[in-house]
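Request: Have a read of the protein record below and say how the chain folds.
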Amino acid sequence: MFKKVETTKELNTARHLHRVIFEEKNFVVEEINPEAIQYLFYEEDKAIGLVEFIPYHPEIFTTIENDFAFSEINDIQCHQGTTWEVDKLGLFPEYRKKGYMNAIIDCLAYHAVVYGATRYVALLDALFFRMLQIAYRKYPIKKVGKTFTVTGEKSKSVPVIVDMEKSIQIYMRDNKDRVKI
């Protein structure tokens, strides 16, 4: 289950989750952007993970453009205004192998439909990207550059673009009996 962050308490929970998850992964811990849209993932009443969506406007604000120039990619140039950055995606370690990927996919699809996102850009952990390639190969998650190490981090990152127009079609076809958006 996922829920949009709407209260100060939920925002503080998102900050805590982000710090704990990213310190464990040796990622750079950034401030939660209060202007962005965050969702928390839950197991019953316990928050176990988060994701943050930021409208992708590199001329105004971006957390990733300095590390990889998504704005130079034609697909992103053609989808200005409907591209979103996916940031701070993570689950507590003890929940990573318990089937919560479907909740993450549900959240990505929900956000895309509600906010009209046609593309997502992200710098994904290389191991997480590899898992997505294997488990979710039907979704158009495209590596658009070389794997590299972000300054200040230890693990490798992969720059990706997700075509959410195609992803929503696949998602709705595969989940028509389970999910109503």
